[in-house]
Design goal:
7 helices; disordered N terminus
Amino acid sequence: MVSVKEIISFCAVAFFIGTAKAAGGNSTTDVSCEDKLYDSFCEYKQLVLTQEREKCLEARDILNEAVSDCVAKDPVRRMVQSVHYVRLFAPNCPTIELPQDGCGQLPTCLQMLFDRSGQRIRCCSKFKADRCFARAEKGCAYAAGVRDLFINQALPKVCKGNQYVHYRKTVIPSSCPASQY
């Protein structure tokens, strides 16, 4: 018999990977997860910056909606976007796990791959982050997909013998309208 936790984990939207692993996946839509994350960032940011529990939960829902029913066309951009979302959420909503309850270790694993700016990928931390993702798999149903997207798809595209790689493309809006919350 399947436990309630397994059903919730299976049905929950995967924060980092969405419903398809990469372009050419089996998604029924051509909408890129990266575009949806870009478009959702300002509303997400406004909610998170309130530091109110209910607003943080609403922001988490917006984020999960942004990565549902889409295709990860650019795993590197997706990874960089994810670290920006995580770094905004963590200090403002410290009692809420992202992307869902039980997966609180995933943001820690992701942040190992970046310097403080979130624009410099630390290729030298790949193995350390991979071990972290492997440990996270024990308590989080979709940690394996996250691990595959970032460790096996994104990093090999940019880490070609370099210790660090600067990612210069715009992944989130540089400015957002005034808060409505």
